[in-house]
Design brief:
Layout: E1 4-9, H1 15-18, H2 23-29, E2 33-38, E3 51-53, H3 61-82, H4 99-114, H5 118-132, H6 136-148, E4 152-155, H7 164-172, E5 177-180, E6 198-201, H8 204-213, E7 222-224, H9 242-248, E8 256-261, H10 271-287, E9 292-297, H11 308-313, E10 318-320, E11 325-327, E12 335-337, H12 339-350, E13 354-357, H13 362-368, E14 373-376, E15 378-379, E16 388-389, E17 409-411, H14 417-426, H15 429-442, H16 450-461
Parallel strand pairs: 1-2, 1-4, 2-3, 4-5, 5-6, 6-7, 8-9, 8-13, 9-10, 13-14, 14-17
Antiparallel strand pairs: 11-12, 15-16
Helix pairs in contact: 3-4, 3-5, 6-7, 10-14, 13-15
Organism: Ulvibacter litoralis
Protein name: Monogalactosyldiacylglycerol (MGDG) synthase
């Protein structure tokens, strides 16, 4: 009899890793009965998958507040443990804009103060699970699990409060559970919201992080699989010819394009000025006899008009190619990736010569294609909008995993971008070599075998 695995999909961003890669196909080939337990608005039956919809999942309001308190407590404890103030910068300020917001914020502040210790953190973690066990949502999850009788529940992200009740219900029924650590920067930011029997991580580096931050987790519970996030770069059937791609997106076949990968407005408030500076540098190079362009791929959840003026002013060099995501609601987490976007992003990388951005994991996507990345390292955060050296995001913990600063080219002054860009393209080898070393620290290699390793690990656990 085939073993049944419920793949719990609490948020849409997990679609990219587990619905659009080889993950499902490989599981079927290994004779698993796979059912997606789907809390996203996306209909997975449309792409041929078995699914059970989680209709209107409703964690208890108090659970969400306890989660917020837990995150603040953890970050303050990390700061104290490591004697490092960087963790304080991950704490979102509380809102007091309305009576309701004030009540919530006062609740969070009280719990944060009341449980501000290692033992208090343990108590609040158990309170969160106990809270969800009182919900109708939890009872519904129990019924689903009793009916489906899975051998394993695999949660595709550790970050979502929606996942707490289904996983707690599985543990109540003695069904083994695992969660996947979704992103390379998640663990220092205290986003391990769920508690599971096992944790699947990208690398040995991430395993060390998880054990460092979550003291209740033992080494035997943490299993290194890599992430399916980069598998698309090793899938030839996704690739279009240069002629096809350039014609489809009205690119100039005689030009070399760099990709400017936009960031969200929280991380990069003045991202449009960085795009302007890069476009200005490319225009300058073109006047000197080069033939270059900029493919602008905005952050998929950024629908603002902040780039419009720059795109219009520099339309001789900038070609915007919008991400193929679907907006299925008003909240950012209902803007969902599509399979078409996986192909689109893969081809942008394949048919551009480098990427420029503010500290994103696109450095690894380009390293997979043996192409260099430049990180912008100046800011416009002053009132005069004059460039100042340095960007606060590079103080974040996940950048400390970089083995050498040469893993990227640093654009530290808008006036020197043209020459820095030219130097990067003339001699990319050293940057690519160091970026690949960083990629190997962050994600278990070979990266294209992550889905296979995940299924092999589940087989061993079952």
């Amino acid at each position: 009899m085939n073993k049944k695995v419920l793949v719990l999909m609490p948020d849409g961003v997990s679609l990219r890793n587990f619905a659009y890669t080889s993950f499902y196909k490989l599981g079927i080939e290994k004779d698993f009965d796979i059912v997606f337990w789907n809390a996203t608005p996306f209909n997975l039956q449309e792409i041929g998958y078995n699914e059970i919809k989680i209709e209107n999942p409703k964690p208890r309001p108090i659970t969400d507040l306890l989660k917020s308190a837990r995150i603040q407590i953890e970050l303050k404890l990390y700061s104290k443990r490591d004697k490092d103030s960087v963790y304080q910068s991950y704490i979102f300020p509380l809102s007091f804009k309305s009576l309701k917001a004030t009540a919530k914020s006062l609740f969070i502040k009280w719990y944060t103060k009341r449980y501000a210790s290692e033992s208090g953190l343990e108590k609040i973690r158990h309170r969160i699970i106990a809270s969800e066990r009182k919900s109708e949502y939890y009872k519904n999850c129990l019924e689903v699990l009793k009916k489906e009788k899975p051998d394993f529940v695999f949660c595709t992200s550790q970050r979502s409060v929606i996942a707490i009740a289904p996983l707690a219900a599985a543990q109540e029924l003695k069904i083994p559970t695992a969660s996947f650590i979704f992103s390379w920067d998640n663990l220092p930011k205290a986003t391990t919201v769920v508690t599971t029997d096992y944790y699947f991580v990208w690398s040995e580096h991430m395993k060390r992080e998880l054990l460092h931050y979550q003291k209740y987790v033992s080494s035997e519970q943490v299993l290194i699989t890599g992430t399916p996030q980069f598998e698309n770069h090793f899938t030839d059937e996704l690739l279009e010819t240069k002629d096809t791609f350039f014609t489809k997106h009205r690119l100039n076949l005689t030009r070399e394009y760099i990709c400017f990968s936009g960031d969200d407005v929280t991380t990069s408030q003045t991202d449009q000025l960085y795009l302007r500076d890069v476009a200005k540098a490319v225009r300058k190079l073109n006047k000197d006899g080069h033939n270059m362009g900029v493919i602008f791929r905005r952050c998929p959840v950024d629908f603002s008009d902040r780039y419009d003026e720059v795109i219009e002013t520099y339309n001789d060099v900038i070609v915007p190619i919008a991400p193929a995501w679907e907006k299925m609601g008003e909240m950012w987490n209902t803007i969902l990736p599509t399979k078409a976007d996986l192909k689109l992003q893969t081809n942008i990388i394949a048919h551009s010569v480098a990427v420029v951005n503010l500290g994103s994991s696109m450095v690894f996507d380009y390293a997979a294609h043996k192409k260099p990345c430049a990180f912008i390292n100046y800011n416009y955060l002053n009132s005069s909008q004059q460039p100042e050296k340095g960007v606060y995001v590079y103080n974040f913990v996940h950048f400390r995993s970089m083995p050498a600063r040469e893993a990227v080219v640093w654009f530290s002054d808008p006036e020197t971008i043209a020459e820095d860009l030219l130097a990067m393209l003339k001699a990319p080898a050293k940057t690519v070599i160091e970026a690949k070393k960083w990629f190997e620290v962050i994600n278990l290699h070979p990266p294209q075998e992550a889905s296979k390793r995940i299924w092999n690990t589940i087989i061993e656990l079952i």
